[in-house]
Amino acid sequence: MKKLKEKIVKEGKTIGETILKVDSFLNHQVDVELMQEIGKKFAEHFRDKNITKVVTIESSGIAPATMVAMQLKVPLLFLKKQKPNTLQDEFLQTTVYSFTKERFYELMVAKKYVEKEDRVLIIDDFLANGEAGLGAIRLMEEAGAKVVGVGIVIEKAFQPGRSKIEEKGYEVYSLARIKRIEEGHIEFVEEN
Ligand code: 5GP
Asked: Residue 128 C-alpha to ligand 1 middle, in angstroms?
């Protein structure tokens, strides 16, 4: 997605050769017009998959995932990282390793929001080692739903996330694929 890549080049800040910060439009402040276009792009790609629910991870996945859900006219469900006192329903939980924070965290979902008939599209802001995506897939499958695809705003293609998710048989569709980060320069994977 050309506009997204231009935005990454213009406003992204790199930390070493692996981390990209996009706080100005995705991870802190949100460019809602760009998010709307991102939502349309994902919806266009997954439109014929009969998706019944869009699932993401709090908090940075919520903005793009909301836009996709709005386009597809289905509910948005976000997985929680902390169990709130108010979560008294029966819930499912899985442990995930965070690449950026270098620690383990929990992902949770109340069972009542996932139906056996659900066809789920998972959306996330970044794909690195695939741990968050695989955790979300595990939870959904455990709840009995079918995951029909994973949509990623920014994929760091030099990390193994895509292959780990594809190996398990799920489609990964990314809007910007970064091939390399070198001395602050961001190089994208050529799309044909
Ligand atoms: P994974 O689980 O695929 O290793 O990492 C994905 C999650 O880690 C994303 O949900 C995102 O929150 C965070 N993440 C991974 N790499 C980056 C990065 O370069 N920049 C930012 N802002 N977040 C990242």
From this structure: 6
